[in-house]
Amino acid sequence: MTTIASKLQSVRAQITDACQKCGRQPTEVTLLAVSKTFPAEAVREAALAGQRAFGENYIQEGVEKIAAVQTMADVPPLQWHCIGPIQSNKTKLVAQHFDWVHTVDREKIAQRLDAQRPEHLAPLQVCIQVNVDGGETKSGCSPEEALALAQCIAALPRLQLRGVMSIPDPQPSHDAMLAVHRKVVAVFDRIRAAGIVGLEQWDTVSLGMTADMQTAIAAGSTMVRVGSGIFGARDYSSQA
């Protein structure tokens, strides 16, 4: 078994354990393997070990990696998620190459993604990024802005609104982290209760990474984003 395959097995076991501790089924939580800064060959190893959903933060790198993986004859079709910030000049790349985008935080970006999504592709699956703890340097709309943004996205024909995403700051204790995670789930619940037309597939809380995955699952996350726990430590020198 390769190192990536063994780490995947370990992360899946952690997800199962976290779900059992809070009375949930492991099938309720999707594992998103965050492959940013890692080569296409690492994606291939993970795919051959059964992983199908991959997240990329850097859009240009992600587009190049998607193309490289598609040339690999032994790799099955994969699902690609954009989980990094999106500038207006990068929306076309996201619309053309990714299956999901987790980081829509304003109407302008949603409208551009909708207009630039090719007709021959399925609607782009979208999560609203929520800055739940108010960090000034982080992307995301405020919890108070999320409902209006959801109403906007739900009306766009080439987008399918699926849920919310957040990257809360670390907290000093399990209980404090759990409380912040629950604030994200509360935003998800408020939007679901609003009765917006177009939320037929409102089912995703993208929350929790390698360090806070168990707490996020206890709070109600349905998709955890794990990178270093699968691929190892990252080298960011190429991103400088």
Description of the molecule:
- By secondary structure, the protein is an alpha/beta fold.
- Helix content is 40%, strand content 16%.
- It is built from nine helices and eight strands.
- It has an eight-stranded parallel sheet with strand order 7-6-5-4-3-2-1-8.
- Helix 4 packs across helix 5 (107-116).
- The mean pLDDT is 95.
Produce a short descriptive summary.
The protein is 40% helix and 16% strand. The protein is an alpha/beta fold and 240 residues long. An eight-stranded parallel β-sheet has the order 7-6-5-4-3-2-1-8.
Span from first to last CA? 33 Å
Beta-strand content estimate: 15-25%
Category by helix and strand content: alpha/beta
Main β sheet profile: 8 strands, parallel
**Which runs of at least 5 residues are low in confidence (pLDDT < 50)?**
none
Spell the H/E element sequence. Answer: HEHEHEHEHEHEHEHEH
**What is the 3D form?**
globular
Strand order of the largest sheet: 7-6-5-4-3-2-1-8
From the alpha carbons, calculate the radius of gyration and give it in angstroms: 17 Å
Report helical residue fraction.
40-55%
Total number of β-strand segments?
Answer: 8
